[in-house]
Design goal:
GO terms for molecular function: protein-disulfide reductase activity. It comes from Acidihalobacter yilgarnensis. By secondary structure, the protein is mainly alpha-helical. It has five helices and two strands. Helix 2 (about 20-40) runs antiparallel to helix 3.
């Protein structure tokens, strides 16, 4: 759902994603693949929960980095996509429902990380 919201903001609202936004989209895809495989086939698997956990952890780190850029207002993101991506501090500062997008990213990935960390596969309970 979060990935769909990110693409709709780009296509329909016209907000251009920054480099960290693309990293976060990749992490959302990893979460979707891991949890989707687990849910679709309805059988426990260790790799799918671990893929989702790594995606959530990577997304949380990139969202936190973007949030710190928004707070400082400085363009310090070392990732650039051929110079075509906007500044991460500007892209993450867009308001959605009263909060900056960077804050939404931190919240979404924190919830997903908590969800994945409590999975039995990540804790070593599945084979």
């Amino acid at each position: 759902m979060a990935l769909l919201a990110a693409f709709s903001m780009e296509w329909f609202v016209g907000w251009q994603p920054c480099s960290l936004c693309w990293v976060q989209r990749g992490c959302l895809l990893a979460i979707g693949v891991g949890l989707g495989y687990r849910g679709f086939f309805a059988k426990p698997c260790a790799w799918c929960s671990r893929v989702a956990f790594v995606g959530a952890l990577g997304g949380l780190l990139s969202a936190r980095f973007q949030y710190s850029e928004v707070a400082s207002g400085a363009p310090v993101c070392p990732l650039q996509i051929a110079g075509a991506a906007p500044n991460c501090a500007i892209a993450g500062a867009h308001l959605w429902l009263g909060f900056p997008l960077a804050a939404w990213g931190v919240a979404i990935f924190l919830v997903q990380l908590t969800r994945c960390a409590t999975s039995p596969a990540v804790q070593g309970g599945e084979g």
